[in-house]
Amino acid sequence: MLQRLRQSSDGIKWVPTDNLHLTLKFLGDVDNTEVPDVCKVIHRICAHQSPFHLDFSGTGGFPSLQRPRILYAGINDASGALTEIVSQLETSLAELGFKQEPRDYIPHLTLGRTRSASRLASSDVMERLATEERTELGGMLVGSLQMVASFLDKSGPTYQVMDTIPLNT
């Protein structure tokens, strides 16, 4: 899908395939001393969650499909397990002092962003996105979560896995 959507000079910063990831909770700047407590919270939540299935299909945009700044592939969380994990993370991490997300969680896989906050996706990009609105991308069984640190530099973000937390099997 990314290969079909991406065109040079289209004003979108497309996520490199190797950097595609599903964010459950963005924490912002985290002091190294806080990482063990965050990992403990994730371990506690995962200990009570069985593996679950996610399906990836379709496309969308935030804040809306009519005026998107973020382009994404949709995620179907039929079991509700992903949404429940995110809810538990929000509550438990707030107890550690992390800001709660004021918006409802919408499972999605970010594919690209407009290059500036004030710019919207062009009509050409929107037409390409619309042709993929029913594309089935497949599914996966989620058996673990990862605590990932991101580092931003001039070439873009790099990611480092801090901990891998298995779900209760």
Give the C-level CATH assignment.
Alpha Beta
Q: Tell me the major beta sheet.
A: 5 strands, antiparallel
Number of domains: 1
Global shape: globular
- Per CATH, the superfamily is Cyclic phosphodiesterase
Instruction: Note the run of SSEs as H and E.
Output: HEHEEHEHEEE
Helix percent band: 10-25%
Approximately what portion of the residues adopt beta-strand conformation?
Answer: 25-35%
Can you give the mean pLDDT? 92
The total count of strands amounts to 7
Helical run tally: 4
Instruction: Trace the largest sheet across and list its strands.
Output: 1-4-3-2-5
Characterise this structure.
By secondary structure, the chain is an alpha+beta fold. The chain has one domain: Cyclic Phosphodiesterase, Chain: A (Alpha-Beta Complex). It is 24% helix and 33% strand. It contains four helices and seven strands. The strands form two sheets. The chain has a five-stranded antiparallel β-sheet with strand order 1-4-3-2-5. A two-stranded antiparallel sheet has the order 6-7. Strand 2 and strand 3 form a beta hairpin.
